[in-house]
Amino acid sequence: MKTAREIIETYDGPHVRIMEVCGTHTHEIFRLGIRKLLPEQVELISGPGCPVCVTPVSFIDEAIYLALEKGVTVCTFGDLVRVPGTKMSLAGAREQGAKIRIVYSPADAEKYAREHPEEQVTFLSVGFETTTPAGCLSVKSAKEDGLSNYSILTANKTMPQAYEALKGSADVFLYPGHVNAITGTHLCEALAEEGVSGVVAGFTAKELMTALAVALVKFQEGKPFFVNCYPRVVTQEGSREAQVLVDEMMEACDSEWRGLGMIPASGMKLRQEWQEFDARIKYQVPIIEGKPNPACRCGDVLQGKCKPSDCKVFGKVCTPQHPVGACMVSGEGACSAYYQYS
Ligand code: SF4
């Protein structure tokens, strides 16, 4: 019997485009040297699974509005600080006097609000099904703690609608294992019935090689397929606890994705009974139309329409030190992976 590595290295089937939906997969596949094993006809393309990358420019502009116009202390994961907004990044706003604090979790932001009752504090809640429950928990804690100075600015997104929007951009999806750990695999099974093939992959070298080998073997059979190659973590039903928590506190809303545009019902916002913690409502944030740098092709990169190296400013004007777009800033971004490893 062939090993996963042998299956990958000796693949001589038809050309296949495999989309790494998850930014961590993109980085790990580069870092582990797996790309070097792939024959020419196996093409890996990046997808929309880096939460910072898909967060639109308008969200950065809203956060800057809160910080500069409303004097709110903005708590955020570090990656978002250097993502360019229309006029400046949060780092730029900090230079103009805005209070921008880097935190490692929404719980840290809630704790900061509790310890600083004299400040209004907003957490920038971005990410997919994996991170949304933690944002909800922070709001729940704030309610229990009786805080009136804590809120979240939501840009939380859900993957199912993105898969729908990306149908046809790849032959096989490499599904993000950590998202499926929460959502389960029902959706992937349903997509396979609609003709969309994919495998759920873990994050170690062995798990990634196995997932790719399974994808190549199944692809040659010529029929749509779904295989869970990360069964030690991903179950069919996912995390019921997380699903119930999010459902209790949040509801679906239309959401803008960088590159993919507005996707109906692909976002999450707090339900009406939790709206006192919704920064957009609390501070009456106006609708802001963000404008990305026209030279940046993040939108195309996130849809697998081009590789980062196809962007004219890649590695020249746009580098991790001086990022022009979100995909070069984020530790999960495809442009930063290409810059670091290729
Ligand atoms: Fe955007 Fe920079 Fe990537 Fe080009 S290289 S797509 S400018 S992030």
From TrEMBL:
InterPro entries: Hyd_form_HypD, HypD_1, HypD_2_sf. Keywords: Iron, Metal-binding. Belongs to the HypD family. GO terms for biological process: protein maturation. This is Hydrogenase formation protein HypD. It comes from the Bacteria. It holds the Pfam family HypD.
